[in-house]
Amino acid sequence: MVGVIGVNKTQFKAAKSLVPITKRLYVIDTSYLLELYRVNPWYEESAHRMIKQKFVENCKTGQFFVPVAVLFELANHIADAKLRRFELAARLSQDVASSISEQSPWIITHAVGAQSLTDLVSALNESVSRFADEFSRQELGLTDTTVILEAERLLRKDQKLASLRHYQVHIWTRHAALKAREPDAEPSPFI
User: Fold this and answer.
1) Run of H or E residues at 55
2) In CA terms, which of 52, 72, 127, 175 is 20 to 30 Å from 140?
3) pLDDT at residue 161 in the model
């Protein structure tokens, strides 16, 4: 039987297997979450609308990764917020709980590959060393370093698994120096 688009199931499956689908992996920086949450005074209404639209447009075809350090930095900004502090803290708490239980709205990532306290300490050492030796010279902070390391980890994972070659790794940030470190250039970035 022929389907709605004029091909049968077998033809559709064969055609689908020939067309590589690009999945996008987004590592989210604090600057995007400040806009998304509307944390006053660190957001702009026009940027909030644009970033919210990007999340909505990409939620079906992409995955969002948020390093723990980004959540700590966001929480610190919320603690200093001029308006809606308790509402924002409650929303962050709900989003983190949902992310832990359902990996939605994000996948929360911790230190790269850390399975034990020893691994965590080793990953922290790598983060701080790369921050001191490389990223601080580019005016990138320790939280930025964790965003870059997560993007690098996703890219390495992508390269190791042939089936993932159709992935692209992007960093969503309003910080141009951090955006410049994303593994794959995003077609229409919003900085």
Assistant:
1) helix 45-58
2) 52
3) 56
